């Protein structure tokens, strides 16, 4: 019997940003001991070619020594929204070099500043996403957009996510679906969203929602029933998934990733494989 799993259990390191800022190497050692195998990074410094204060080749060796991989990164592309195309492409090329060094598969756009969360802002965003996707794809990597809740706010009969779906090239711009934010802010559930453009949702963020405040919480403590959701989204095109909790920790961030990992491994992992 082959017990090898198709997917590694992933973690978005932003969850434990306080611990990473204190001692990244020791924190990653603890992460691996909890059963996490794959990571999504954040905070790349393009000018210094560094992650968490380590040059990219050094950080890659730390991961290798611990038996960890990183398949995606949330890169600071949103900081170049109003920059010239030359400045944007310069940073994209830095991200490509960093991603190559870490042997990542995806570069991910993670955020959109509030002043651009309107119809005009999204329409200005989509050609940038296509341009970045073309550059990244030519470099042999994948590019994706990560949603929050603001993409689902009504903009006069449409929303930002509709604009992104319709005005970006599915071959160049993949999607990282954040289940929490879909359930928090969208009138449609994850299965309905995925059904519009199946196979485009190559990455997932899995996190739970506090039953009263609707803030983040540890997996199993909240209102999101992943045993109902996960079996219905197998047409997404999934390559990688990452557990995440942006804040509102019951005790602290490291205890939260401990508790979420334990719940996920016991109750949910078998739905993914």
Automatic annotation (TrEMBL):
Listed Pfam families: AP_endonuc_2 (PF01261)
InterPro entries, per the entry: IolE/XylAMocC-like (IPR050312), Xyl_isomerase-like_sf (IPR036237), Xyl_isomerase-like_TIM-brl (IPR013022)
Instruction: Spell out the SUPFAM superfamilies in the cross-references.
Output: Xylose isomerase-like (SSF51658)
Q: Which residues form the Xylose isomerase-like TIM barrel domain?
A: 29-244
Name by which UniProt lists this protein? TIM barrel protein
Q: State the organism of origin.
A: Poritiphilus flavus
């Amino acid at each position: 019997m082959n017990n090898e799993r198709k997917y590694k259990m992933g973690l978005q390191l932003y969850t434990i940003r306080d611990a990473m800022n204190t001692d990244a190497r020791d924190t990653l050692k603890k992460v691996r001991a909890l059963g996490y195998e794959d990571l999504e990074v954040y905070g790349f410094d393009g000018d210094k070619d560094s992650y968490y204060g380590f040059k990219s080749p050094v950080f890659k060796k730390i991961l290798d020594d611990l038996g960890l991989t990183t398949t995606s990164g949330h890169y600071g592309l949103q900081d170049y929204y109003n920059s010239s195309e030359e400045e944007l492409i310069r940073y994209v090329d830095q991200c490509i070099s960093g991603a190559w060094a870490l042997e990542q598969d995806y570069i991910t756009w993670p955020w959109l500043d509030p002043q651009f969360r309107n119809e005009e802002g999204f329409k200005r965003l989509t050609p940038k996403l296509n341009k970045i996707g073309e550059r990244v794809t030519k470099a042999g990597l994948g590019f994706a957009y990560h949603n929050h809740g603001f993409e689902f706010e009504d903009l006069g009969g449409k929303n930002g996510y509709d604009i992104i779906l319709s005005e970006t090239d599915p071959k160049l711009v993949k999607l990282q679906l954040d289940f929490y934010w879909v359930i928090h802010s969208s009138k449609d559930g994850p299965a309905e969203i995925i059904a519009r453009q199946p196979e485009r949702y190559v990455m997932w963020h899995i996190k739970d929602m506090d039953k009263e405040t609707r803030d983040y919480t540890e997996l199993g403590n909240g209102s999101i029933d992943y045993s109902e959701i996960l079996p219905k989204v197998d047409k997404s095109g999934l390559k990688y998934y990452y557990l995440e909790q942006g804040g509102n920790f019951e005790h602290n961030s490291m205890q939260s990733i401990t508790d979420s990992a334990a719940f996920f491994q016991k109750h949910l992992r078998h739905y993914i494989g």
